[in-house]
Amino acid sequence: MASMTYLQAISDGLRTAMRDDERVMVMGQDIGAFGGAFKVTDGFFEEFGADRVMDTPLAESAIIGTAVGAAVVGLRPVCEMQFSDFIACGFDQLVNVAGKMLYRQGLPVNITVRLPSGGGFSGGPFHSQNPEAWFMHAPGLKVVAPSTPEDAKGMLIAGIRDPNPVVYMEHKHLYRRVKGEVPDGAYETPFSARVAREGSDLAVITYGAMVHTALQATEDLDGASVMVLDLRSLVPLDEEAILAAVRTCSKVVIVDEANQTCAAGAQVAALIAERGFEDLDGPVTRVATPDVPIPFSPPLEQAVLPSVDRVKEACRELLAY
Amino acid sequence: MASMTYLQAISDGLRTAMRDDERVMVMGQDIGAFGGAFKVTDGFFEEFGADRVMDTPLAESAIIGTAVGAAVVGLRPVCEMQFSDFIACGFDQLVNVAGKMLYRQGLPVNITVRLPSGGGFSGGPFHSQNPEAWFMHAPGLKVVAPSTPEDAKGMLIAGIRDPNPVVYMEHKHLYRRVKGEVPDGAYETPFSARVAREGSDLAVITYGAMVHTALQATEDLDGASVMVLDLRSLVPLDEEAILAAVRTCSKVVIVDEANQTCAAGAQVAALIAERGFEDLDGPVTRVATPDVPIPFSPPLEQAVLPSVDRVKEACRELLAY
Amino acid sequence: MHTSTSRAPADASADVAEHLTHDDRVGLLRYMLLMRGIEEKAMSLYRQGKVPGSFYDGYGQEAVSVGAAFAMAPEDRLCILHRDLGAHLIRGVEPAAILSQYMGRAAGITGGRDGNVHFGDHRVGCVGMVSMLPDMMLVAAGMAMAFKLRGEARCALTWFGDGSTSRGDFHEAMNWAGVQGLPVIFVLENNQYAYSTPTRAQFAVNPVERAGAYGFPGLSVDGNDPEAVFEATRAARERAIAGDGPTLIEAVTMRMHGHAAHDDMSYVPSEQVEEWRAKDPIDRQRARAVALGVDVEALQGEVRARIDAAADEALSGPMPDPATATDRLFHPRDAEEILLGDGRGPWSGFAARAA
Amino acid sequence: MHTSTSRAPADASADVAEHLTHDDRVGLLRYMLLMRGIEEKAMSLYRQGKVPGSFYDGYGQEAVSVGAAFAMAPEDRLCILHRDLGAHLIRGVEPAAILSQYMGRAAGITGGRDGNVHFGDHRVGCVGMVSMLPDMMLVAAGMAMAFKLRGEARCALTWFGDGSTSRGDFHEAMNWAGVQGLPVIFVLENNQYAYSTPTRAQFAVNPVERAGAYGFPGLSVDGNDPEAVFEATRAARERAIAGDGPTLIEAVTMRMHGHAAHDDMSYVPSEQVEEWRAKDPIDRQRARAVALGVDVEALQGEVRARIDAAADEALSGPMPDPATATDRLFHPRDAEEILLGDGRGPWSGFAARAA
Ligand SMILES: Cc1ncc(C[n+]2csc(CCOP(=O)(O)OP(=O)(O)O)c2C)c(N)n1
Ligand SMILES: Cc1ncc(C[n+]2csc(CCOP(=O)(O)OP(=O)(O)O)c2C)c(N)n1
Ligand SMILES: [Mg+2]
Ligand SMILES: [Mg+2]
């Protein structure tokens, strides 16, 4: 066990996976000698060499497409997008080539795509997005979004070992802000939900950076017993854990940093409305970012991202229902 | 008034818009002398010439990107994707360039992107998709999906006149299958929902090709009075009409041809679970395509696409609730 | 790294004689006949309503896929495109499996999940194409990248059309292959049209000219001569294996049918069709075979019989079970790893290599 | 259509004398000083925590944006990239508006919605860049397409970096511009690096060599000489307006600062930095001005005063109102049509054109 930031845990997971399995390689822009825009691969170039820590041209479609090719002949590439936003430039290869290969022809595509995502630091409209819902709506991709250092490492290792394409959402705002104990060596965190805090009056269902917002918002909510469910994996979605939370609490607030329409949170709400209906004791409440690009200037950005206060307010209102 | 197929109505709308406004031009692969893969622009080349009916190279990103450029200096390009599936190759330009321009810098982008979508004719995994939810989750794009010839024409004209980027979903399976009366000349269909059939026991909320599936499935459902709400527009989403349907019927089935996770139907269900909760008299039921690529072979394709029988069954079950 | 581009048709004659045996030359003809015959059969099944969806063929372009695939070794890896049925045959895919594929039957390579030539049999080292053109160029480059990283003497090859060259992925693949010096062969199948669009509306300069600007050679060959295509590919493969990097080969040919079954290609001038009909690749190879003393009638009969038997087999097979429609979205962690196999096509590799 | 590529540095001297007046040459220096001064001011505001997010500058590359924008007419349209602040100044964007933009203030060009040089003032004919590189090449090509379709004697210009050339949109734009013969100028700002990536990891052959393979000329100029960049752009504009199609201009320069404020560019050999420091574009133009008898001290003082005043103004402006954060997602149907304006920059066009 060591105490690590979320960022360090990602590095540790990646390094562990590479030490364990020489088929694992990383590809991306400026990840070699420079160590990556966020320094996730700092020191990797020295340890693993230029072949396994590959600086690529500025070409996202090529990063995904060549990774698919390398994967089907036996490598296990981990692709880094410099920011998750740039996956829009590799969208087709991810969705159409990687996502559909197994279903169509029985050929698994063992790639992992790391997407540094999320806002909260004036990244503006092109460095703050949370694009996970696009990939939830693209069959054949797994989508995970850890919130703690321990899960960040364990889910990255599990993702790399998973024979399917895994979209790994790493929230930039957690990189240096969140610290925690991380087990040594290789371990896997399952692609299922985790109860971040037990509770019985109300359940906040969320994932990624918003887990911390939710925990903070509900730490002391007028004495209410609030469960926080950390989904961790979006595809597969742990439907049983979600429905169990509804059964226990009967009231649900879903918190999602992405733009609200057709977000992960919409899917969770729809699931509950269909299969948890009888257990509900109030409207399925959502807190998300309104449907606008993420603005750059702090007052504007703070106005759109879900805040501790907005989550508090939503919970209070629902508790009073 | 003339009786037209859905396809003819799209052509008629496009031709009308081009006759009315010389800023309107169409761009796409094989749309010139050939008249387009589905013959939507048949005869346009002869009437409007090569400049306004532009055959483009095989380059979707370029189609969207150059259309944006032409739009901001005063043209009104209508882009045709040969199949909606290929928009994955122009995704970045649509989502990041077109979608965010106005919000960021006050510059509207008057383009319309026609996406021939949907399955039901053995198009297979790359010619059958319903990608509208991706664009609902990309702020700054309007998304419409007419179901009748009259609306197809009126919404296309409205979309072309709308100063914002409009993603126009035209369901291929309706092209020649659906016929109806279409007013002459220019008119606009508003971007709001339409009650396709009144009813009070249960509401089926849907759009596009599924409107016809829903109407057929509920025509004679053991004497139940079933409302069918045709959303027509997905962004903006007519939330009031949806909530009114819930108030009237208290029971809702949402039918969506797209893959179910994070689909348009998920957003509608989430809306109802939040703001229509008190009016609900049963779970919010969804019928959609499971999360797999659309298979080619008829028995497989029929097994995944929402059918009249599946809709019937879902309605019956909910009515009995 | 900058190698100048040559468009002079590769003069195959000398080298070809060195590398193709008598049987190889007959083999080339046999595969072309098989390709044309299967596609004709599929077309008639389509007309009978037994092939769902659309139907695309490579009529008149048989030399391109057959010639190029013939030069590849079992350990090489291929992404085969929609006019390149011959390549599948060379890798050893059975005609019955192909006809089943067209008809969406359970015994098709994709089990009915995808249609047309949208397949690849991973057991013989092929990745099936996606519709989005030319996405497979990047997949091929990626396979070649893995070979290079592991120091393996293998290469990857993919085909793509003149129209496909306009898309960004063409460029990203060319650039990536050039900068990394990958063992990959790009076969640009210039059949003069992309659907209804003639090449002049697709590019101002023939894309084969671009290879030099990516740091590797580009050359044009007569795409209606299987031996010329073979020889250019063989030489490109030799370069690739030697660590000399990629090659772009333009095979100049003509799409002699419509884009797909529904297209009467009225946009193609009839003189153009006539001109190319005179250059039919099968006629050309048949003449060679006759000159070699081969009983071509017998060969044609043999091929026809094989196709008829395949059609019977395919037609008697079941459609897929609808209950399986949502299976295999994800590969289970504990299941066996599946990779592209080691190739087992009888003609994966011409005789001279084995020697 | 195939024009051969020339990489010989354009010999500007003769033509430049013909087109640049004394005042123009001082103007070039003034805009470069203004660009550098504003970026230095912004950097110090960044260090004080007044510029949120990240900060990018064009230190050492001032000649590229200033030289090229100077050659454009008010009716031309520009997509300006992240190292090209000088172009905004030439179009007439006020320093205070730029500093407000960096600081996310309400008076910034985007009102705080976007940051850095991610802006374009549509009133002066500019479309703001997106981060995704080089997407704006297609937008510029599209504007040029509209000009050509309407028969207008105008052109579009955009800049982009060496790294950006690896992406598909570079190719799609080059090909589209070539096949349609568009009045567009592509300025490839080769500053040797893309973030930490040197050009050798980006391409095997200099992309300026590719222009010929798209059917139009590509040429290299000394990107640290504003007059050379001016002259190449002026000539390219003349070609464009005459209907002779696109030009690719490679401006060879060096990124003298890190990729962004956080980057100490330890990956750049210090000799390389030293070598280029000796070629500073402002020093070069300053020497020319001195030779012309200009009081350069006074000019510098004037520029400094203007920047100080701008900073005061920007710092006193309010942050945007959070209540407006979700406004203007869609433009109302009944609102006035907004298009790129007609340009009003005092230096949109050099003196000789007006004459
Ligand atoms: C990215 C993309 N856009 C559009 C299409 C639709 N489409 C299918 S084949 C075709 C023409 C392809 O032309 P070419 O690359 O020359 O290949 P050919 O069919 O001539 O062999 C088009 C436009 C596609 N498959 N992929
Ligand atoms: C499509 C895309 N991928 C990644 C990035 C992240 N990124 C920002 S600037 C940069 C380097 C750009 O290099 P170059 O084009 O040479 O421009 P320069 O910054 O050197 O002027 C990168 C990789 C981006 N902006 N766009
Ligand atoms: Mg072609
Ligand atoms: Mg650069």
Q: How would you characterize the overall build of this protein?
A:
The complex is a heterotetramer, with two copies of chain A (321 residues) and two copies of chain C (355 residues). Chain A is an alpha/beta fold and 321 residues long. Chain A has two domains: 2-182, Rossmann fold, CATH 3.40.50; 194-319, 3-Layer(aba) Sandwich (Rossmann fold). Chain A is built from twelve helices and 14 strands. Chain A has helices at 6-20, 44-52, 60-72, 91-98, 101-105, 132-136, 149-161, 210-218, 239-249, 264-275, 298-304, 308-319; strands at 2-5, 24-28, 53-55, 76-80, 112-117, 142-144, 166-171, 179-182, 194-197, 202-206, 226-230, 233-235, 252-259, 285-289. In chain A, the strands form three sheets. A seven-stranded mixed β-sheet of chain A has the order 3-2-4-5-7-6-12, with helices on both faces. The longest helix of chain A is centred in the first third of the chain and has 15 residues, at 6-20. The radius of gyration of chain A is 19 Å and the shape is globular. Chain A starts with a strand and ends with a helix. The model of chain A has no long low-confidence stretch (mean pLDDT 98). Chain C is of the alpha/beta class and 355 residues long. Chain C has a single domain, classed as 3-Layer(aba) Sandwich (Rossmann fold). In chain C, 41% of the residues lie in helices and 10% in strands. Chain C has helices at 13-19, 22-47, 62-70, 85-91, 95-102, 136-150, 168-180, 226-241, 270-277, 281-291, 296-316, 351-354, and strands at 77-80, 126-128, 156-161, 184-190, 193-194, 197-198, 218-222, 247-252. In chain C, the strands form two sheets. Chain C has a six-stranded parallel β-sheet, with helices on both faces. In chain C, a hairpin with a 2-residue loop joins strand 5 (193-194) and strand 6. The two termini of chain C are 33 Å apart. Chains in contact: A-B, A-C, A-D, B-C, B-D, C-D. At the B-C interface, helix 3 and helix 11 of B face loops of C. The complex binds thiamine diphosphate (2 copies) and magnesium ion (2 copies). One thiamine diphosphate (TPP) sits between chains C (83, 131-133, 161-164, 167, 189, 191, 193-195, 255) and B (29, 58, 60, 82, 86, 89).
